[in-house]
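in:
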């Protein structure tokens, strides 16, 4: 049954053994509005900022937990990526996604800021306040880059790991890349000269604040925020793993999977408003299919 169908048990008396269910389907307009709200609350293609996504193959690595647990989380992240059509690197690859389990997420972020500011150089001042002061169980940031629409030029750098090894901690350095890089060609009527890319992602999981949450669900959450440029949710979108720590979803939802798949199919050399519309349209189509 569609997840967009609201169900209610009938108020009229029923005979023993009988269950009467009535439902009211959303109108197409209500459905599109809800899905548009979902896209908006993820923060992808927010305002005038184009969507960013991975161009290189993703290589997740997990730190701060025993090897068996780390392997379970890595396998989950890889499965989410592959299901969405995101290319993954071979197991012995150089990590560009670091998922680190720590006792104090905010404290860990402050240590990174103190020891190596370049690791969070692409995080805005406003987002840094959230990063250092938030009591959220999970926090994350990205290394961002930009190239021309043909994938040429832009900043690039090999990820740098701090610490590492079984039971250790790690953070991957990023590059600031919010300013578009343009080629000598003029943009087309519907396209832009630049595309934004994710080059690294760091996800920090506070084990004390996430205590009691199933590991697979936490891994789903980490995968979702590592594979797309997601804003920390003040109000999480409906039917999303982003509601995990607010008593909502128990893991990645069908809508989240559809969203990731759509994100990796839309054109990057488009204006942000066009990308939002395209993402919403693909989510609508996925529900209808």
């Amino acid at each position: 049954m569609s997840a967009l169908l609201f169900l209610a048990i009938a108020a009229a008396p029923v005979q023993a053994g009988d269950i009467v269910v009535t439902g009211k389907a959303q109108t197409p307009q209500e459905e599109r509005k809800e899905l548009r709200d979902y896209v908006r609350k993820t923060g992808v293609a927010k305002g005038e900022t184009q969507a960013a996504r991975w161009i290189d193959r993703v290589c997740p690595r997990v730190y701060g937990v025993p090897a068996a647990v780390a392997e379970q989380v890595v396998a989950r992240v890889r499965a989410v990526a592959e299901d969405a059509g995101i290319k993954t690197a071979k197991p012995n690859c150089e990590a560009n996604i670091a998922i680190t389990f720590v006792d104090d997420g905010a404290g860990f972020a402050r240590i990174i800021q103190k020891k190596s500011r370049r690791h969070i150089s692409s995080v805005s001042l406003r987002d840094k306040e959230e990063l250092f002061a938030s009591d959220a169980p999970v926090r994350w940031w990205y290394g961002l880059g930009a190239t021309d629409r043909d994938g040429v030029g832009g900043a690039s750098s090999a990820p740098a790991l701090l610490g590492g090894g079984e039971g250790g901690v790690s953070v991957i350095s990023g590059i600031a890349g919010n300013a578009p890089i343009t080629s000598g060609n003029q943009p087309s009527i519907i396209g832009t000269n630049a595309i934004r890319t994710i080059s690294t992602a760091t996800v920090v999981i506070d084990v004390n604040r996430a205590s009691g949450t199933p590991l697979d669900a936490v891994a789903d959450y980490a995968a979702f925020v590592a594979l797309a440029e997601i804003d920390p949710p003040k109000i999480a979108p409906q039917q999303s793993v982003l509601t995990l720590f607010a008593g909502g979803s128990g893991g990645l939802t069908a809508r989240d999977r559809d969203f990731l798949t759509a994100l990796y199919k839309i054109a990057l050399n488009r204006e942000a408003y066009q990308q939002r519309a395209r993402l919403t349209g693909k989510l609508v189509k996925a529900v209808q299919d």
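note: The radius of gyration is 20 Å.
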